[in-house]
Specification:
28 helices; six-stranded antiparallel sheet
């Protein structure tokens, strides 16, 4: 059982890691796109300011006043042309401010020679740099954070005379990012090579402007950039300096300025996407390693002390040899090549080899083959000076018998302290292990059937319930009571009764799946724990019902015992979990209650603790049975709902499936499509719909209606290996034009095996089929994947259309989808249009086609064709 648990945990860890890698790759791709667009936009904006400031500098250098001073009026005119700048100033190279557009005329201009930002800019300009992209500073006059953009003014010999400085407000750059396509809850910013932020949007709510712009960054991102000498692009996971939040950073070097644009996404957002794809939690099991024992080297002593020590060593060796010879434990030593060099009498008694037979042999002769690799790793650590104590393992006797031993390994050293071999001390623990095993069996297993007992079952139930409550897994507990067992026991005796119980236990074990557990609680009561049935309550209930029915039928099969024929009935109670804060005792009590409900209903029955759920399951099973006859008895009907362009003309139609049940009446698709998906009948239904669509296309074109038809293709049907071939065969057989056929698929199709999905879509596009993403915006919606798909159109889900144009959020989403589709060259159809206001808004927003009750309700295909004929 322990090995089984380890295998499950290993699979869980692998699946979790794979899912995390997929989510990380997708988000990094999206953030990289944002950083690329943001870098280009910001670089272009700064270049415009750079060019304009360079032009002003050239005017001032080439047009000095007659007395050799600069024309300050040109600076004022420049400031008026650029109202977005907080201030434009002219500063001499000695730091004396000549002009500030924020100061009134006649104001005495201060000196800025002592300011760090001025000194940094002047030193850069003296070194030959003309344009300086300065770090943020708090304006003296404006008391607002500004980014200084400075340009040098030089004389004819190129010496620095002054600098013209334009102050860009920091909040202006924040508004610059407001319309950027930033991923939800991400932030964007520009970090200068000097460690100061030039911009960040949005600002952390807990940080002041001084913390954002006035403090030099020394966090993980800055250290990464400095260590890699400011690379062109990259990614980094680290904690934010403000708030300590762990983030994913995707950054890109600006093309013309000493700064890096970065986009930051909180790791909790990545984990939210990750958890949405996960089915089970994972647990990492760590093995604690024994501590290292350092080998103490003897200190050199004076000559007379060394001689005394040597004598003491000789005496100790003599005493040790006597102890080894008389010890009941096996004491063996071997050299670094694993050749046995000593073998005491205890080893001969334990392992059966004489000393003469063992010396010179490989120590592996007494190690079972399956343990050799693991113990070789332990030996390697001992050769490095470690000591391995109390290792419980097995050794081989000369006759092949396996012995349980407790092993201690120690390195052997020479007088210089060099390791020359390994000492093995083995103690026989076979009796102790047998006693432990017997105690374990008595404590955790039923002595009659060998099944887990109530104690082991309750322990396992507690673990399973905790995992289900944290991992969104639906499981079931089945409480099984054998009907009329007391009569068998009284009539045939306890020996026969015990044999019947063993037979029932064997039947239950034969029906177990991996991970399930069957236990005997006592008497004729058994329980079955099915920990993972599904990730939805409805599917889990169906699986639990199917399992209970299999158990009931198998137990009811007749069997012979001592030339007598017996047949067992069983009343089975089922309780699903997790619900709220269920405890193991609660769950067992619920299943027990359901079992008594089954007995009260007549025995040999199945009952759920949740009575309403049992009714739903029975109805769904009846629906699945009826669905098997629907196609053969021609109960399926195709409907058409037209799509209209902005002028109100029909430019397409969607083919919809309805079930005309002889007793239930007209069954809508939301009642039977899910059942068809689960049972696999969706493949036959999909093939039938494809056949009907192709025949309708031929009929429509024969009557002069050259419009495309859209049909829904389920993921299960699409993933059939022969799907492309079946589509091609239907097109050839009916003669339908493939370019008039549109396959509508959902975004969920893109999550699993994306590369194979794209390849299959490409193969169908080669036939002429066009693709549409149905219910767009409600599923995966990965922009990185969307641009790789061979799509023709997007269908906006009716949930977004319903509240437009009144709801600003839905209105913004619809506009964003239309804008994105326009850039990707995709046609857009809006579903669920029911009011004139919705239609007007969509037309004004350049939506290509509208579909909904406002224009036409779905109608049977023959009726729609007849109406079109009358209109024609």
């Amino acid at each position: 059982m322990a090995l089984m648990i380890l295998l499950v945990l290993g699979f869980t860890g692998l699946y979790t890691w794979t899912t995390w890698q997929q989510v990380s790759k997708s988000l990094v791709a999206e953030l990289s796109t944002v950083t690329e667009l943001g870098e280009k936009s910001a670089d272009h904006y700064f270049q415009l300011l750079h060019v304009s400031l360079s032009g002003l500098a050239e005017e001032l250098q080439e047009s000095p006043t007659p007395d050799g001073h600069y024309d300050l009026e040109r600076v004022r005119r420049y400031s008026r042309r650029h109202p977005e700048l907080l201030d434009v100033s002219l500063i001499r190279q000695d730091g004396q401010m000549l002009l500030s557009t924020q100061a009134d005329a006649g104001t005495v201009m201060p000196s800025v020679a002592a300011r760090d930002t001025f000194m940094e800019a002047r030193e850069a300009m003296i070194r030959g740099q003309n344009f300086v992209f300065g770090r943020p500073a708090l304006g003296t006059l404006t008391q607002r954070w500004m980014i200084p953009l400075r340009h040098a003014l030089r004389d004819r010999q190129g010496r620095l005379q002054a600098m013209v400085t334009a102050y860009l407000p920091a909040e202006l750059l924040q508004t610059f990012w407001q319309n950027a396509p930033i991923v939800k809850r991400a932030s964007i910013g520009i970090l200068g090579d000097d460690g100061y932020l030039r911009s960040r949007y949005p600002n952390p709510a807990s940080a002041s402007m001084q913390q954002i712009y006035g403090q030099q960054r020394r966090g993980a991102l800055m250290r990464e950039l400095q260590a890699r000498h400011f690379p062109s692009q990259g990614t980094l996971q680290g904690r934010n300096e403000i708030g300590g939040q762990e983030n994913l950073n995707v950054y890109r070097r600006m093309s013309h300025y000493p700064a890096t644009l970065f986009v930051t996404l909180p790791m909790q957002e990545m984990r939210a996407v990750w958890w949405s794809n996960m089915q089970v939690p994972y647990f990492l099991i760590s093995l604690l390693l024994a501590g290292l024992l350092l080998v103490q080297r003897s200190a050199q002593r004076r000559r007379h002390e060394l001689l005394q020590q040597q004598e003491m060593v000789q005496q100790a060796r003599a005493r040790l040899a006597a102890i080894v010879e008389s010890s009941d434990d096996a004491i063996i030593s071997h050299d670094l090549d694993e050749r046995i060099v000593s073998w005491n009498p205890g080893a001969s008694r334990l392992l059966g080899y004489t000393e003469a037979e063992a010396l010179g042999q490989s120590s592996q002769i007494i190690v079972p083959q399956e343990r050799q690799q693991e113990e070789s790793r332990i030996l390697e650590r001992v050769r490095q000076g470690e000591r391995a104590e109390r290792i419980e393992t097995q050794r081989l006797h000369r006759d092949g018998t396996r012995l349980d031993v407790e092993l201690t390994l120690s390195p052997l050293t020479d007088e210089a302290g060099r390791i020359t071999g390994v000492s093995n001390i083995m103690r026989d623990i076979s009796e102790r292990k047998s006693a432990e095993q017997a105690i374990h069996v008595l404590a955790y297993f039923d002595p009659l059937t060998g099944l887990p007992n109530r104690r082991q079952f309750m322990d396992r139930l507690g673990q399973t319930l905790g995992q289900a409550q944290s991992g969104f897994q639906v499981g079931a507990l089945l409480f099984i009571d054998l009907d009329h067992f007391k009569d068998v026991n009284d009539a045939r005796g306890h020996a026969v009764g015990d044999a019947v119980l063993c037979h029932a236990a064997a039947v239950l074990v034969s029906l177990l799946r991996e991970g399930h557990l069957v236990a005997r609680l006592g008497g004729d009561e058994f329980v079955v724990l099915a920990p993972i049935l599904s990730n939805t309550l409805t599917a889990g209930a169906s699986e639990a019902m199917a399992l209970a029915e299999r158990i009931r039928q198998r137990l009811a099969q007749p069997f012979e015992l001592e030339q007598q024929r017996y047949s067992l009935g069983a009343s089975i109670g089922v309780s699903l979990f997790p619900f709220g804060q269920q405890t193991p005792a609660d769950l067992l009590r619920e299943a027990d209650t359901a079992m008594y409900r089954a007995k009260g209903a007549g025995r040999n029955r199945i009952a759920f603790f949740e009575t309403s759920m049992q009714a739903d399951i029975e109805q769904r099973l009846a629906l699945e049975n009826d669905l098997e006859k629907a196609l053969t008895q021609q109960q399926m009907v195709v409907y058409l709902q037209p799509q209209f362009d902005a002028r109100g003309q029909i430019d397409g139609a969607e083919l919809l499936l309805r079930w005309q049940h002889p007793e239930r009446g007209l069954v809508p698709p939301d009642r039977f499509i899910a059942a068809a998906e689960k049972s696999g009948q969706i493949i036959a239904l999909g093939d039938w719909v494809l056949q009907q669509a192709c025949e309708l296309l031929v009929l429509l074109q024969a009557r002069g209606h050259h419009i495309p038809l859209s049909i829904n293709v389920s993921p299960r049907q699409f993933r059939q290996t022969d799907f492309v071939g079946r589509v091609q065969e239907v097109l050839q057989r009916t003669g339908a034009p493939a370019h008039s056929l549109i396959f509508e698929v959902t975004e969920g199709l893109l999550i699993d095996d994306f590369e194979e999905t794209v390849a299959r879509m490409q193969a169908l596009v080669q036939l002429g089929i066009r693709f549409s993403i149905d219910d767009f915006g409600t599923g995966y919606s990965s922009l990185a994947y969307l641009k790789r798909l061979p799509l023709y159109e997007l269908k906006i889900d009716r949930s977004f259309v319903k509240d437009t144009p009144e709801d600003p959020n839905d209105t913004a989403i619809v506009r964003m989808i239309l804008s994105m589709a326009k850039h990707l060259g995709l046609r857009v159809v809006a579903e669920g249009v029911e009011t004139a206001e919705q239609a007007d808004f969509l037309r004004q927003s350049d939506c290509d086609a509208l579909q909904g009750y406002l224009f036409a309700r779905p109608a049977p295909a023959w009726q729609w064709l007849a109406e079109q004929g009358q209109e024609g």
